[in-house]
Amino acid sequence: MTQSQIDSLRAQRLEPALHVVDGRRVPASDGGTMPVVSPIDGRQLTTCARSTRADADAAIAAARRAFDDGRWSGLAPAARRKVLLKWADLIEARALEIAVLGVRENGTEIGMALKAEPLSAAATLRYYAEAIDKLSGEIAPTDPAFLGLVHREPVGVVGAIVPWNFPLMIGAWKIAPALAAGCTMVLKPAETACLTLLRLAELGLEAGLPPGVFNVVTGEGTVVGAAIAESMQVDVLAFTGSGATGRRLVEAAARSNLKRVYLELGGKSPNIVFADAPDLDEAAKVAAHAIFRNSGQVCIAGSRILVERSIHKGFVEKLAAHAAAIKVGDPLDLATQAGAVNSERQLHRNLAFVAEARAAGRQVIGGARILQETGGYYMSPAIVADAEPGDRVFREEVFGPVVTVTPFDTEAEAVALANATDYGLAAAVWTANLSRAHRMVRAIRAGLVHVNTYGGSDLTVPLGGVGQSGNGHDKSLHAFDKFLNLKTAWVKL
Ligand code: ADP
């Protein structure tokens, strides 16, 4: 990847994006479109289809037909594998083009986007494609007069609703295990990140996915997302996004067909630094990157630093130095380490959290709108150095480059502060004391606890939250559980 390759890709003019339904690229039935605005400069890039409820229902019907007639679920697993592997190859061959397209739309720095988006989606497709013919059913250890067979069957039509921060990576965490398992899917991208998922769907058709197996419908959450959530034809809903939307999806499932709803709802993840951390410089550097890369728009971001009081002041200084060294700016510049905030709305939300902390008398370092002359949405990293547990910025997910630092005195107090949240997605503990590290892993309520590191866990381990961070797991072989039903055959011999 060179700067000149990126610059020539960023100059490409984009055609209006159509949605991909039943093997075809089609506009909204009433011709409706939505502007796609780039957070890099605030300018309109193109438009995408603003689907109606009828369009969403048509896509769901296509996925239903494709599931029920067995054109995909009825194939041998090895045949599905072949298509998914080809799909991964096509994505990888166009990785830079797809990554640049995504960055133009959502503002993630290109270095991270290339790895986390097309390359990670390709790797995810390969992982589940390779796994699907290695899963077997069971023969239960029953009374020998009977035979108890446990089959694993695809659940049917999956509705996926995904966010704007890592649309391909998060999308692929749902697409790959669902399709490998034999399900079909209707996916709704976020309003501000639909182009790469549409590209993915086009490449899927090129790879040989039968029509209707993977459909992408763009439009508003309250229209297209709601239609998927309320549909009687969708068997499982797989969602990543906000808690408020998650609640609506559960309600919609209850009102309709009791479809299973899997939710990944973000977090307010504690990053706990003890004075005996093996390397406090490293801890401060990683802590800065754990919240400020991609301008904090990461569901597992380490947004609450808890630090032992004896090192609080020194740690804040180190953190501030690392934060100041992070290069914020044009996400398509290879030197940039933190790109744009996804939308103007999100930028103002982030700044409001900072202003509120300042007004409450907290010590706030950074946190200003910058590069306004570009027309884009950029913000310098913000550190609230003495946040209190009652502060809104300590309790609510900002989803921006804003971190709180709060001192603690004892291990028990660190645990209490860490768990003083409705969320429970990720956490980290920095200590050289092995026993303490394992005690903390047990005591912290979260789906993922890092020890002496933050982020970077791979596809082989599950990611899922507890509490109001959601339920179910993306990644790892456990992700299949969402998309495969168990069926028992009980046979008298
Ligand atoms: P964020 O605040 O990060 O944008 P959302 O939960 O609003 O988080 O968005 C995540 C996804 O949920 C997006 O694809 C969005 O369009 C969709 N969405 C938003 N509102 C609804 C809704 N009422 N029903 C279904 N999907 C929705």
TrEMBL record:
Belongs to the aldehyde dehydrogenase family. Residues 29-488 form the Aldehyde dehydrogenase domain. PROSITE patterns: ALDEHYDE_DEHYDR_CYS, ALDEHYDE_DEHYDR_GLU. The keyword Chloroplast does not apply. The active site is at E264. Keywords: Oxidoreductase. This is Aldehyde dehydrogenase family protein. InterPro entries: Ald_DH/histidinol_DH, Ald_DH_C, Ald_DH_CS_CYS, Ald_DH_CS_GLU, Ald_DH_N, Aldehyde_DH_dom. Pfam families: Aldedh (PF00171).
